[in-house]
Amino acid sequence: xxxxxxxxxxxxxxxxxxxxxxxxxxxxxxxxxxxxxxxxxxxxxxxxxxxxxxxxxxxxxxxxxxxxxxxxxxxxxxxxxxxxxxxxxxxxxxxxxxxxxxxxxxxxxxxxxxxxxxxxxxxxxxxxxxxxxxxxxxxxxxxxxxxxxxxxxxxxxxxxxxxxxxxxxxxxxxxxxxxxxxxxxxxxxxxxxxxxxxxxxxxxxxxxx
Length: 209
Description:
Blueprint: E1 8-13, H1 17-22, E2 31-34, E3 37-41, E4 50-55, E5 60-62, E6 65-68, E7 84-93, H2 97-106, E8 110-119, E9 122-131, E10 134-141, E11 151-159, H3 162-169, E12 177-178, E13 185-188, H4 191-194, E14 200-203
Parallel strand pairs: 1-3, 4-6, 7-10, 11-14
Antiparallel strand pairs: 1-4, 2-3, 5-6, 7-11, 8-9, 9-10, 12-13, 13-14
């Protein structure tokens, strides 16, 4: 675990467990585990996507994002065929970065840093918060103040051998390429083809690891 409070305990996703098995995860009775976080697959439904996330000590909606303070019993982390060993970051999107950042800070989450960059002729912003051993990455247009809630969007997972993962998953994994983070590589799981409703990226370990 980590010295940072508010550990990301679990996430619930409205997906068929078999789809995650096809993506190389070891799933038992609709549940799998990635490092300190349990993933509960509730079955494909409408709406699909994230149902909620359980974060220790936080039980509320934060700018529309459902946070729960309770989680199902945690199984031991299994060995995954896709070589996933860690939960790098949880990605959220906001139509109003100022508003959502303030809401996360007010809920007690530790704001690690903020990054801005140019993309597609606009300035984008990323704000990073600690969820225990996991980073919450909040992304959106730097200057926008749009209406509507923030949403939990996707997962970035650490893979101990990205080349072996690519070999194991074949066409179910996109091209391995350099990541934004220096010294790391990334590949995107072809979730749509597998019937998975949330984006998933696999990343090589941090160089210091």
